[in-house]
Structures are given as structure tokens and as C-alpha cells.
Amino acid sequence: QVQLVESGGGLVQAGGSLTLSCQTSGFSLSFYNIGWFRRAPGKRREGVSCMRISDRKARSADSVKGPFFSSVDEPQNTVRLQMNNLKPEDPDLYYCATVLGGGECRLSSDEYDYWGQGTQVTVSS
What is the pLDDT of residues 35-69, one digit of tens each? Predict the structure, then answer.
């Protein structure tokens, strides 16, 4: 059974950094793409970063490029999202998701089949 569990959310000051983790189980991570998404209340999920695990090829949304980085620890079946220069207006719920890989990863939520429950990030001004 595919499972994704996010952790690492919390309170951070504006301009600060935070690293989220996505613990995966039930599938072989190396064959999948992982995406990170965020959502503000009442808004659609926005893709921020993704990675094709097989070759570590990653991409980030233009809105967060540079400050946000994906990484993977395959022995631990964990994918991480390092977020830098967080802003109070940034959406507060962050999710990881996965889909069987092959092609380049994408930042559209429609592309992903399995989702975690999300973790909350609060940025104080």
C-alpha cells in the first residue's frame, strides 16, 4: 500500500528556512516521481518542486525557484523539500505526492496518484 507521510512543518519567521520530509512506503521510490505542492485556504494546490527519483532530475516552480530545493535519501525512502526565504503570504499547507515515473516530473497536481495528508507551515512576520 502506497503511503506518504509529511513532517517538519511548524512556525518560522519571515525570511527563514524550513525543511519538510516525506516518508514513503509501499513502493520502490526509484521508479517514481515525487512532487511537492502547497495550498492556501480556499485556493487550488500549487506545485512548487518535483523530482524524478531515477536520475534525480528536479524542477521548481518559477514562483519559488532558487529558494526551494528537493532532495532524496533513498535508503531512508525519504524525500525532502528545503524551503528558504519564506514569506508570510506563502500558502500554509504543504503536501507531497507521487506517481509512477518515466517521463519528466511535472508540477501539475492532476499528474499525481497518491498524496500525503499534508503538513502546516506558518510564517510569522
Answer: 999 998 889 999 999 999 999 999 999 888 668 98
Question: 102: helix, coil or strand?
Answer: coil
Who's near 40: CB < 8 A, 6+ residues apart?
Answer: 91, 92, 93
- What's the alpha-carbon Rg for the chain, to the nearest Å? 13
- Rounded CA-CA distance 73/123 in Å is 27
Residue 88 is which amino acid? P
**pLDDT higher than 80, residue 31:** yes
Q: How many CB atoms lie within 10 A of CB 121?
A: 20
DSSP state of 18: E
Return left, alpha or beta for 118; rule: phi > 0 is left, psi -120 to 50 is alpha, else beta: left
Record the cell numbers describing residue 4, joined without a space.
506518504
Q: What is the DSSP letter of 76?
A: G
- Owner of C-alpha cell 500558502: 91
1, three cell numbers: 500500500
